[in-house]
Amino acid sequence: MPSIPEREFNESLTDLLESIALEEVSLAHYVNAEAEKIQAVVKLMEKENFCLNKIIEFQESVTRAMRIPIKKELLLQFKLEDILDFKREHHKKKSPEEDFNLK
């Protein structure tokens, strides 16, 4: 099992925020790839005749593919809100004992 390094509070928050940023970048690449695929199909459609069923099938595949980043975006939003809430709560507390309700 890998060891977990000791981190200060602010370092931990920074790590969490960086993880959100990295996921956002990967989602942007995913969405961009889908956009490029759509552009390629549109160019093909300009040159060739496509039957309506093929167009609908393609649109459904795009819809299914775009559900993935939409779901991930929702989860990332929840993660960000949780981090911000945790930070606010942490700064409200006056002493470490309050973290464990020892007072």
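Above is the first protein from milestone M3; the second protein from the same milestone is given next.
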Amino acid sequence: MVLGIVAVAGFFIVFVTALVAPLAWYFGTVALRDIEREPGRWVGHGAARAGQVLGAVGSALLAVATIGVVALAALATVASSIPSPY
């Protein structure tokens, strides 16, 4: 859950923290699997689900931001190769 919170909240402050979002998604999924396998031994289903959901949201934001950066870089490359009439 903590990695998910850091990923989603940090995405708007520092883009680098969004890189932990896939880890939050993975660890949340692993924790949920362990909780379902041995419910008497492990607790924290809600925290694991929150980590999984926040990790998925952070991963989606990371994907959209990466596509945006690549698109802007491509646009800048194309725009700089066109000769200016001025």
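Note on the second protein: The mean pLDDT is 86.
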